[in-house]
Amino acid sequence: MFELKTTPILSVRDIEEYIFCPRLFYYRVFLSRESFQKFWKEAGRKFEAEQILIIKNKFTDEFTFIEPQVYESRKYRIRGKPDFILKHKKFKYYVVGDVKNSNRVKNEFVTTLAVYALLLEDCGVTPVKRALLVLQRRIEWINITDSLREKAKYYIKAAHKVVKSGKIPKGNWKNCRLCDFREYCHEKS
Ligand code: SF4
């Protein structure tokens, strides 16, 4: 059974960050978020908006486009707003979508979509059977399988555990070369 009682609400992007690197997540949670704002890239916002518009008009035969809102789950102690949601006109299931200014299907992208699926379902947007990952030059359909859901739950719990313990977790060193914090982080290590 999934039980989280005393930890604060985390954003889905926090969980995505944890999946990318637990230590990066720790920095963001325990050091002033504002002090790190400069690291967060604005680039990509325009790309996201363009892609969402394309998706809005692309699948109209099969799906209804639903404007997303901010959802909050008490059960998982997470909050977030996916980039878009589609509802299958005939079979009534939902698809959660995320746009990434990237060409690769990365672990954190796929698992984050499952985190969104859990969030939406806990808020009554159910069932979320599939996800759509919109990349720079292609789109990937992803099935929200039971094993993917379990993986998402694992990461949600693990991120909350770090918040509760306050202990600095190990870094995901293989992602250091992609990390905007590496200078800061490697100074501290
Ligand atoms: S530099 Fe590496 S270990 Fe440090 S936060 Fe970034 S990814 Fe994690």
How would you characterize the overall build of this protein?
This protein is of the alpha/beta class and 189 residues long. The chain has a single domain (10-183), classed as Lambda Exonuclease, Chain A, CATH 3.90.320.10. The protein has helices at residues 12-20, 22-30, 45-58, 107-122, 146-165, 182-188, and strands at 10-11, 63-66, 71-73, 78-80, 84-88, 94-99, 128-134, 139-143. Strands 2-5-6-7-8 form a five-stranded mixed beta sheet. The protein has a three-stranded mixed beta sheet with strand order 1-4-3. Strand 3 and strand 4 (78-80) form a beta hairpin. The chain is globular and about 55 Å long. The relative contact order is 0.20. Iron/sulfur cluster is lined by residues 21, 23-24, 171-173, 175-176, 179, 181-182, 185.
Bound molecules: iron/sulfur cluster
Major sheet characteristics: 5 strands, mixed
Q: What distance separates the N and C termini?
A: 36 Å
Helix-strand sequence: EHHHEEEEEHEEHH
Poorly predicted parts: none
How are the elements arranged and paired?
Elements: E1 10-11, H1 12-20, H2 22-30, H3 45-58, E2 63-66, E3 71-73, E4 78-80, E5 84-88, E6 94-99, H4 107-122, E7 128-134, E8 139-143, H5 146-165, H6 182-188
Parallel strand pairs: 1-4, 6-7
Antiparallel strand pairs: 2-5, 3-4, 5-6, 7-8
The protein binds iron/sulfur cluster.
